[in-house]
Recover the amino acids of this structure.
């Protein structure tokens, strides 16, 4: 069994991103900038945003945090997005999710200029992904694919099961695997006999937000298991959607939590920011 080390891959990838940033023609095109909008004081969101700001500093991307009160009106957040759309010093815009429940999240995401959408949430970017011509890939699925490639895990012709159908992870990850010639099945909370399906899979990716959901009897010997979950167990300890201690014994490769997919999400956000900068300035 081989542990897929997300920290290692993230560190190596960030070195490459820093080199890409250093090579940008900032004297002609200006510095590269990312704006992050945080609405409210959700503790988890604050941690995620801090990690993104720190990541930008590490690779040389200028970051701006716009922190709005939790009771901000929809029009206030929308105006913030429109101002960033028009700001030539901002190459990438990220709206930290979730936003407070009184706000129309989908409408706010649609308002972001797709050319500055570094999270791949705008329907224009999703459409490009669906037709096999991705420009900006959602960060977590992008990170999963980077890990699979780093460890030279063959995808062509493999049976891949994605457990979870969210717009941020499950659906785009399934599409990326399909584009790499895997045979893909998407499962969810209403899937019947889910264990029967996952047991046939060469690759199982779990992203449903249920602690230790995937058990050893749901995985075949030699499978590759990718855990996208970030949960707390009965003792309050950080864990994933996979019962790691028992499932790991049957796997050829497995991601741990923490230290697996998690570190890759912010790293691929940084890569997406470089990507949109290059597209905006015709550098690709």
């Amino acid at each position: 069994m081989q542990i897929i080390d997300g920290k290692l891959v993230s560190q190596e990838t960030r070195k490459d991103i820093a080199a890409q940033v250093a090579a940008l023609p900032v004297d002609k095109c200006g510095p590269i900038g990312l704006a992050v909008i945080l609405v409210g004081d959700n503790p988890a969101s604050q941690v995620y945003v801090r990690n993104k700001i720190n990541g930008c500093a590490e690779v040389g991307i200028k970051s701006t945090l716009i922190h709005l009160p939790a009771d901000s009106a929809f029009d206030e957040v929308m105006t913030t997005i429109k101002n960033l759309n028009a700001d030539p010093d901002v190459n990438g815009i990220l709206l930290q999710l979730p936003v407070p429940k009184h706000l129309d999240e989908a409408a706010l995401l649609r308002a972001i200029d797709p050319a500055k959408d570094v999270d791949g949430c705008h329907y224009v970017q999703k459409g490009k992904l669906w037709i096999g011509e991705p420009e900006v890939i959602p960060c977590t699925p992008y990170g999963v694919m980077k890990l699979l490639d780093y460890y030279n895990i063959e995808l062509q012709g493999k049976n891949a099961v994605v457990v979870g159908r969210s717009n941020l992870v499950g659906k785009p990850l399934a599409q990326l695997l399909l584009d790499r010639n895997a045979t893909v099945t998407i499962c969810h909370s209403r899937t019947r006999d889910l264990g029967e399906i996952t047991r046939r899979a060469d690759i199982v990716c779990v992203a449903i937000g249920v602690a230790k959901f995937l058990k050893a009897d749901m995985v075949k010997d030699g499978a590759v298991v990718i855990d996208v979950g970030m949960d707390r167990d009965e003792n309050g300890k950080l864990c994933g959607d996979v019962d790691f201690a028992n499932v790991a014994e049957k796997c050829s490769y497995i991601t741990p939590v923490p230290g697996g997919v998690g570190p890759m999400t912010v790293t691929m956000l940084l890569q997406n920011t470089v990507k949109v900068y290059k597209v905006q300035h015709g550098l690709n």
About this structure: The mean pLDDT is 96. The longest strand covers residues 33-39.
